[in-house]
Amino acid sequence: MLHTPGLSEHISGVILHWETLFQKDAHGKQLVDMIKENGMLAGIKLDKGYDKAGLPGTPVGPLGHGETWDKGIDDLDKRCAEAYAQGARFAKWRNVLQIDPAQRLPSALAIDVCVKNLAHYAVICQKNGLVPIVEPEIVPNGDHSIEVCAEVTERVLAAQYKALKLYGCYLEGSVLKPNMVKGGLGAPTAPPEKVAELTIGVLKRTVPPAVPGIFFLSGETKLDEDNEETATRNLNAMNLLYGSMDGAPGLYKSSGLYTSSDASGLPWAVSFSYGKALQKTAIVTWLGKEENVGKAQQVLKNRCKANGEAWYGRYVAGSCASIGAEGNVAMQGGAY
């Protein structure tokens, strides 16, 4: 998919895993070189995941484990230097927070550990010439309301930018990858206009104008919901209602996105860094068969173009064909 013709018209970067950063294709070509030759930047996922044992004494949340944080800080400086030498120019690190109002999750402890861990990662990246994507993800597992998600997201992002200031992060050289403000998977689904209203409201109260870009993760959706179309419509509503882009492409998460531009009504670019919400129809179309590559590339480009239109607030709902909700299960059981 990395050599899809014209992909860079809508995608500006590809996030690789550590092993794929150093991999070659079947013809012996470095994946990093393929990305660059197709007009995009290579990025690298640097966190090493989390231990489900979690923070001692924290209650089990909707994910089935205690509160936690991602590992990998100890050797991060060395890995950043190696990634830059290999051709990576930006990085990402994801921490996970859970919502459970009955148990007062996320706790103040978990938020503090999460945001300082991300701030530490960010300054190590910048020391090594990598632009850090800061990703404090609040997962949608649970049945909490969209209003609860808004309150928690505001607390987390306020703490995140306090921590980034404390650690000396150069905000102009970083980007944010947050969750959209949505209700839990067990709660009613809010329309795109409500998601846009609460999400942009939270961002305006917490994210400094010095930050050049906000690139949303698409997040998990209900199994009977078309995650691709939902993510595109939500992004479109934000830019349609609160400010449209003057023109620039999004990040494809091979495993999303990085670019910057000015929005007429917002102090930062509001764009996408999607994984499954870009790839679902492409993966189900491909399913590992060589004869399906061309078709899969075209549907991938179509969805990327749709999100590029959403960046302008110009996406017409339903205009990009999708495999639909039934593809959610097919993708999980296929080649993804």
Contiguous uncertain segments of 5+ residues: 245-263
Structural class: alpha/beta
Helix fraction, binned, reads 25-40%
The radius of gyration is 19 Å
Order of helices and strands: EHHEHEHEHEHEHEEHHH
Helix count from the secondary structure assignment: 10
Tell me the CATH architecture: Alpha-Beta Barrel
Q: What is the name of the CATH superfamily?
A: Aldolase class I
Indicate how many domains the architecture comprises.
1
The CATH class, by name, is Alpha Beta
What percentage of amino acids are in beta strands? 5-15%
Round the mean pLDDT to the nearest integer and report it: 91
Kindly identify the CATH topology.
TIM Barrel
How many individual β-strands? 8
- Gross morphology is globular
Strand order in the largest sheet: 5-4-3-2-1-7
Tell me the span between the first and last alpha carbons. Answer: 12 Å
* Biggest sheet features: 6 strands, parallel
List keywords for this structure.
single chain; 336 residues; alpha/beta; TIM Barrel; 6-stranded parallel beta sheet; two-stranded parallel ribbon; 10 helices; 8 strands
Written account of the structure:
With about 325 residues, this protein is of the alpha/beta class. The chain has one domain (about 10-280): Aldolase class I (TIM Barrel), CATH 3.20.20. Strand 2 (about 40-45), helix 3 and strand 3 (about 90-95) form a beta-alpha-beta unit. It contains ten helices and eight strands. It has helices at about 20, 30-35, 75-85, 110-125, 145-165, 190-205, 225-240, 275-285, 295-310, 325-330, and strands spanning about 10-15, 40-45, 90-95, 130-140, 175, 215, 250-255, 270. The strands form two sheets. Strands 5-4-3-2-1-7 form a six-stranded parallel sheet. Helix 7 (about 225-240) runs antiparallel to helix 8 (about 275-285) and helix 8 (about 275-285) runs antiparallel to helix 9.
